[in-house]
Amino acid sequence: MAEGRGGATQASLAIGLMMIALLLLNGELAKSKEFTVGDHLGWGFNVRNWPNDKTFHAGDILEFKYEKGYHNVVKVDSNGYANCKSNNAISTFDSGYDNITLARGTHYFICGIAGHCWFGNMKINVTAL
Ligand SMILES: *[C@@H]1O[C@H](CO)[C@@H](O)[C@H](O)[C@H]1NC(C)=O
Ligand SMILES: *[C@@H]1O[C@H](CO)[C@@H](O)[C@H](O)[C@H]1NC(C)=O
Ligand SMILES: [Cu+2]
C-alpha cells in the first residue's frame, strides 16, 4: 500500500516537472522583443513608415531614443494621431530613452513638439497582436 502511494507521488512529480519544463520552453519561445523605434536613426523625423515591415506582439517593448529636450513621445488616441494633436494625451514621455511595453491592440505615438508630427512625419502607429 505504502509502496503504491509512493509510486503515484513519484509519477505525479514527474508529470509536474515535465509541465514546468514545457512552460519554461514556451516562455522562451514567446520571449518579448525589444524594438528601437527608427532603428539606428532613433525617434526622429520621417519615422512614420518604420513599423510597416514589422510584426509586434503584446509584451514587446518599444524603445524611443532621441535627444532629450528636443523631442518627446506622446501616446495619443487615433484622433490625436490623425490630427497631430497632443492635448488629449494618454501619456507623455520625455527622458530621451523611453521604454514602452505594448499591450494587445493599436497604439499611437506622436512627437508633441510643435510641427514635428504634422510637418516632420514624426508619428507612428503600432498594432500588437
Ligand atoms: C498607420 O501607419 C501606416 C504607415 O504610415 C499608415 O499607412 C496607416 O494608415 C496608419 N493607420 C492608422 C490607423 O492611422
Ligand atoms: C529604458 O531602458 C534602458 C535599458 O534598456 C535604460 O537604460 C533606460 O534608463 C530605460 N529608460 C527609462 C526611462 O527607464
Ligand atoms: Cu520631435
UniProtKB/TrEMBL annotation:
Gene: ARPN
Listed InterPro entries: Cupredoxin, Phytocyanin-like, Phytocyanin_dom, Plantacyanin
Record's protein name: Plantacyanin
UniProt GO cellular component terms: plasma membrane
Transmembrane regions listed in the UniProt entry: 6-25
Pfam families: Cu_bind_like
Coiled coil start-end: none
GO terms of molecular function: electron transfer activity; metal ion binding
Classification via CDD domains: Plantacyanin
Keyword Transcription regulation attached: no
UniProt keyword annotations, A-Z: Copper, Disulfide bond, Membrane, Metal-binding, Transmembrane, Transmembrane helix
Superkingdom of this protein's organism: Eukaryota
Residues making up the signal peptide according to the UniProt record: none
Record domain Phytocyanin: where: 33-129
